[in-house]
Automatic annotation (TrEMBL):
Native organism: Coereba flaveola (Bananaquit)
Subunit (UniProt): Component of the ATP synthase complex composed at least of ATP5F1A/subunit alpha, ATP5F1B/subunit beta, ATP5MC1/subunit c (homooctomer), MT-ATP6/subunit a, MT-ATP8/subunit 8, ATP5ME/subunit e, ATP5MF/subunit f, ATP5MG/subunit g, ATP5MK/subunit k, ATP5MJ/subunit j, ATP5F1C/subunit gamma, ATP5F1D/subunit delta, ATP5F1E/subunit epsilon, ATP5PF/subunit F6, ATP5PB/subunit b, ATP5PD/subunit d, ATP5PO/subunit OSCP.
Gene that this polypeptide is encoded by: ATPase6
Primary residence: mitochondrion
Residue stretches spanning the membrane: 12-34, 69-93, 99-118, 195-223
Cited InterPro entries: ATP_synth_F0_asu, ATP_synth_F0_asu_AS, ATP_synth_F0_asu_bact/mt, F0_ATP_A_sf
Name of the protein this chain belongs to: ATP synthase subunit a
Entry keywords, A to Z: ATP synthesis, CF(0), Hydrogen ion transport, Ion transport, Membrane, Mitochondrion, Mitochondrion inner membrane, Transmembrane, Transmembrane helix, Transport
One term under GO cellular component: mitochondrial inner membrane
Top-rank lineage group of the source organism: Eukaryota
GO MF assignments: proton-transporting ATP synthase activity, rotational mechanism
Compartment(s) of residence: Mitochondrion inner membrane
Amino acid sequence: MNLSFFDQFSSPSFLGIPLVLIAMTFPALLLPSLDNRWITNRLSTLQLWFINLVTKQLMMPLDKKGHKWALILTSLMIFLLLINLLGLLPYTFTPTTQLSMNLALAFPLWLATLLTGLRNQPSTSLGHLLPEGTPTPLIPALILIETTSLLIRPLALGVRLTANLTAGHLLIQLISTATAALFPTMPAVSLLTLLILLLLTILEVAVAMIQAYVFVLLLSLYLQENI
């Protein structure tokens, strides 16, 4: 059976049952379990330090009113980070390459930030649609443009995460296929492509971490606008 490069992005199934939910819950196995002691080993200490660092970075743009979102934003950051990194392992599936899942994460959280602003400060939230000092003839056009830019924010969040991860996975598969195909005939060129593949893999690890951080950071910035 011939497989295309995009078959790696198809949702896996077993006996007709989709396995996406299992892939999404697997990162929970890597988190520290509850214990009656504060610190159990070095790994849990490292995990707690990393979670504390992530929380500080995400809460930095927010004032005290937004700190109640710390649990949601930090949990989302850890969830996306683990899924993106685990998806780089061989014979694994990355749920964040699915646009439907990314939109399902982005749209409710963006809507929650928007409704928070409309409830707490409706005048300020609606005032973002019309910059101060706008000439009267440009008011209808600017309101339309600002409303459109506001409504496409969740789409931009989902597409950005999907596109970056999908492009990285495709590049890795293309270069690895070229490395395997060139090895019998041109070993020297194959070693060069293998070196490029290793460098690209390191780059994709960085992209997986950065995209998870950017996704949650933009949500925190949208929240700051509305509180």
